């Protein structure tokens, strides 16, 4: 018998629970979704992002590649990663270099979108395209 594939994703979303902001670190919360065989949703919850305010005002644009990252900004990204550290994959728009590095250092795979609007559309795409991941049932 083939072993089930269990995957846990984190999506950066706004207060409506579905819309992904243009910049990942501006997410109001994270939608955590666990799927079995890219078909069944086993678990779903929202986790608040307490760093939305500082990331969307003081660090509205994440620090560019090669520029020194202020300690406060880097700590905000590290704290965000703590919120979804139990996930294998993070999905969001425009991560920015500094957040990307922190996510990579935590051993989490990331999918950076450029203009994806809704987390549920991405989830539905995973389910609809599951045959491309090798599922045959």
Structural notes for this entry:
By secondary structure, the protein is α/β, with parallel strands linked by helices. The protein has one domain: Dinitrogenase iron-molybdenum cofactor biosynthesis domain (Nucleotidyltransferase, domain 5, 2-Layer Sandwich). The protein contains four helices and five strands. It has helices spanning 52-56, 71-83, 97-105, 119-128; strands spanning 6-13, 29-36, 40-48, 89-93, 109-113. A five-stranded mixed beta sheet has the order 3-2-1-4-5, with helices on one face. A hairpin with a 3-residue loop joins strand 2 (29-36) and strand 3 (40-48). The protein is elongated, with a radius of gyration of 15 Å.
| Cα Rg | 15 Å
Give helix and strand order, one letter per element, not per position.
EEEHHEHEH
Broad shape: elongated
Q: Which regions are unreliable across 5 or more consecutive residues at pLDDT < 50?
A: none
How many domains would you count in the coordinates? 1
Residue share in helix: 25-40%
CATH architecture: 2-Layer Sandwich
User: What is the average of the pLDDT values?
Assistant: 92
Largest sheet: 5 strands, mixed
Query: What is the CATH T-level topology?
Result: Nucleotidyltransferase, domain 5
Number of continuous helical runs: 4
């Amino acid at each position: 018998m083939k072993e089930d594939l269990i995957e846990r994703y984190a999506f950066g979303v706004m207060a409506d629970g579905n819309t992904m902001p243009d910049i990942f670190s501006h997410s109001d919360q994270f939608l955590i979704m666990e799927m079995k065989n890219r078909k069944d949703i086993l678990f779903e919850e929202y986790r608040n992002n307490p760093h939305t305010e500082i990331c969307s005002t003081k660090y509205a644009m994440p620090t560019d590649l090669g520029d020194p990252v202020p300690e406060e900004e880097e700590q905000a990204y590290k704290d965000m990663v703590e919120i979804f550290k139990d996930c294998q994959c993070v999905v969001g728009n425009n991560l920015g270099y500094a957040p990307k590095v922190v996510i990579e250092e935590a051993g989490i795979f990331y999918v950076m979108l450029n203009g994806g609007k809704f987390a549920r559309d991405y989830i539905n795409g995973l389910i609809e395209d599951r045959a491309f991941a090798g599922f045959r049932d």
